[in-house]
Amino acid sequence: MQIKIAPSILSSDFADLKNELKKLELAKADLVHIDVMDGNFVDNITIGAPVVSSLRKNSTLFFDVHLMVLHPEKHIEKFVQSGADNITVHAEATYHLDALISKIKSFGKKASVALNPATPVYMIENVLGIVDMVLVMTVNPGYGGQKFIPYTLKKIEMLANLREKEGLSFEIEVDGGINEETIVDCVNAGANVIVAGSYVFDSGDVSKSIEILRSKVQSLR
Q1: Residue 112 assigned to a binding site
Q2: Is 66 among the annotated ligand-binding positions?
Q3: 38 belongs to the catalytic site
Q4: 166-175: per-residue pLDDT in tens?
Q5: pLDDT digits over 98-115, tens only?
Q6: Under CATH, which architecture does the 4-217 domain have?
Q7: Is 96 one of the annotated binding-site residues?
Q8: Residue 8: which region, alpha, beta or left (left: phi > 0; alpha: psi -120 to 50)?
Q9: pLDDT score of 220
Q10: Active site: which residues (predicted)?
Q11: Is the pTM here over 0.85, yes or no?
Q12: Catalytic residue among 38, 64, 132, 175, which?
């Protein structure tokens, strides 16, 4: 599968989001990862559908919207209308995961499921055939700039093996603690969509950071 770089605007300048997205477009990012936090599922609070809608008017990037919220079923239509291209919900945040994924797909959007570091893969095995992507959190969700959790690599490998065994086509995304070293470990384990926040935006040179990440894995897959 194609390796895709998905910068996370959680680490960008929130006072200048329009221009931050322009930087990503110029750097030829494959998609932009948009973290939505409600202060309940995680402690932090970030942005909501109105902000995503405003960003949509100013960007042609693929919007990868990650809902870190309780009761995500209450918010799906708002983010569909705001211009999300993919909506990711947490397995831990809903009682009716199958129905929620089906609801997202009924709007013609891609639907994905996320797993926190301590959540086992077997929790989502029954829906792997209907999701477009599985997001493996490689840090505990809620804040940027955290250190990569090594044992999450086993979950990536397990998902990659299940995908091959069952003949499925879902992508595997990773989010948290990504840098020049951990991106190699994740891709070798089976991931192909790489979310990077602090590494990209704290460097001072978005294009160079994305280029470095690509160069580290271009020969691996």
Answers
A1: no
A2: yes
A3: no
A4: 999 999 999 9
A5: 999 999 999 999 999 999
A6: Alpha-Beta Barrel (3.20)
A7: no
A8: beta
A9: 74
A10: 35 (proton acceptor), 175 (proton donor)
A11: yes
A12: 175
